[in-house]
Design goal:
The chain is built from five helices and ten strands; from the N terminus they run H-E-E-H-E-E-H-E-E-E-E-E-E-H-H.
């Protein structure tokens, strides 16, 4: 509860449940409080109670799965704002988290700008590839791009699309 009340607005609360979703790390009341306070999201490698209510909030919430038992049966908060493990990955205060329907990635803070640049380029390339595949282009030599002709087509596509 202290973490819920002290997580700064615009930040993400990440909880280490030792990858044990058999008891919840939070429920809709705690997660709703974070949303009301302006937090950017919550991530846990454990379970959440009240998954349906949490899913209706206008704040991203990532967790291993729904869990009925309360957190007090298995989980106890020990510290705040320290390095932890979440989902088998080290998470340090200040790291950047990116999540979507496929899951969450943890990006070390000192690599965030470099990774963002590479990822933006990859997103553009994959959008180009998808357009090509939908137009009937064979995948061999296109993805991954091992043919010069496809690299040239991609560069022309980037010029045309501004990406």
């Amino acid at each position: 509860r202290v973490a819920v009340e002290t997580c700064p607005p615009g930040q993400i609360l990440v909880m280490d449940a030792r990858q044990d979703a058999s008891a919840a790390t939070a429920g809709s009341i705690l997660v709703t409080r974070m949303a009301v306070r302006g937090c950017a999201g919550v991530v846990s490698d454990g379970g959440f109670r009240d998954a349906e209510g949490i899913g209706e909030l206008d704040m991203p919430a990532f967790y291993a799965g729904p869990s009925a038992p309360t957190n007090l049966t298995k989980h106890e908060a020990l510290d705040i704002n320290v390095p932890i493990g979440c989902g088998g990955v080290a998470v340090f205060p200040g790291d950047v988290l990116v999540g979507d329907r496929d899951g969450v990635m943890v990006i070390p803070a000192h690599l965030a700008d470099e990774i963002a640049e590479v990822c933006a380029g990859m997103e553009a390339f994959e959008d180009f590839v998808l357009e090509e595949v939908l137009a009937g282009t064979p995948i061999i030599g296109l993805y991954p791009c091992t043919k010069d002709e496809n690299q040239k087509k991609f560069e022309a596509w980037r010029e045309k699309t501004g990406r």
